[in-house]
Amino acid sequence: MSWRNKAAKPNTYLESNAEAIIADARRELKNPARRLLGKRVLTLGGIAMLSGCDLTNDKSVNTMLRRMSFFNDEMQALLFNPNEMAPTYPESMITRPFPFNAFYDIDDVPEVDAATYRLQVGGLANGKRVWTLDELRALPQEDQITRHICIEGWSAIGRWGGVRFSDFLKRTGADTTAKYVSLHCADNYWTSIDMPTALHAQTLLTLTYDGAVLPPKYGFPMKLRMPTKLGYKNPKHIVAITVTNEFPGGYWENQGYNWFGGS
Amino acid sequence: MRYLINHEIALGQSTVQPAWVRITHWINALAVVLMATSGWQIYDASPIFPVLQFPSAITLGGWLGGALQWHFAVMWMLVANFLVYVGLNIASGRLRRKLLPLSFRSLAADLVAAVRGKLGHADLTRYNAVQKFAYLVVIVDIALVILSGLAVWKSVQFPLLRTLMGGYDNARIVHFVAMSVLVGFFVVHVVMVALVPRSLLLMIRGR
Description:
The complex is a heterodimer.
Chain A: H1 2-8, H2 13-55, H3 59-79, E1 119-123, E2 130-131, H4 133-137, E3 142-149, E4 155-164, H5 165-171, E5 180-185, E6 190-194, H6 195-198, E7 204-209, E8 212-213, E9 223-225, E10 238-244
Chain B: H1 2-11, H2 19-45, H3 64-92, H4 94-99, H5 104-115, H6 129-153, H7 159-164, H8 168-195, H9 198-205
């Protein structure tokens, strides 16, 4: 600011000329240094970005990132409030058509035979271990219109109906003090969830979509719907449920997606 | 940190940027670059604006899963550092001393001078009104980028935040706009440093 004041009111012609000459000389002197520094600043940014790309393939960096992801699992378990309900929406807000999403094309959706289908319950459970589709349909059913949030960022609102998962676990005599529930699917997908989420009131073993039998593209014969978790934690075509204390991992989780995947 | 503050006082007026400002500044700079570049990779998985995609040459993480790991690791660094920066700014009185007061009139006058290329930087110990405004905006913007990010990450667990952001989908847009303001600041900031190189020395040496 003092620079601006100095240049504002020259007293005499000579003084203004002298000042202009000095200013010009100074500018000339400064310019190469400035240019060099400017270049350096920009190069610094460039190097930082390049090294950023290389960091992706560095083993110790990957180990650090995995550790941070496990730390984030614990943080999310702490943040998870079992009494906090995901928002529900009116029927008019349902996304139509609801998007199909899987790690394969829609033509490769598995075809599960309803007549021969059996749901197996394994691990730390001492009740009924094999379920037919009719037996599951005979259990008390409920409905929810909730938002499905994909890890990619998009979201869609849908209507799912089925058996409250905590009810189902009780009927199978599951040890609800166990840490994990792992879920295996007819399309060889698998994932696993924490017990508090498994027991959440909105965690639903869904058998219907929008009032009709769950179509193959949305996971026939059943999908585990959790509005408190991201899409990849909501498996379709489930054939086996295991209650366990051993960390089971998952298809995407083992490749680097965060395990807890909470919303 | 207490030792550092006392040390700066002992040095007297020669130190323009105390050590805590310089340390938090550079940690923040690194965190912002890592968060923005990994964030762009995440954005590309499902672009909010289909016409806008970020080329992979300027993104971090290699793929969505890798970018998310970076984003959710560095976010702790960004947030912790930001809280220390804002906390010390308030506690030390630097916020009041250096970034305030800011009047609309002085901002308009300095803005006109800046556009005409007549806004001097002879005295680097004092910020002009444009600088004050830019630094205050970026502080508020980082707070917004953190809160909107939290609403995207945990939209179910933070219902009030979700509502304030206008719902999950809108929180993504708020997050994107706040990122854009931050990146815009970053670009202008770096250009200004290239024009006034002494300010870079000041942020490294403190003098």
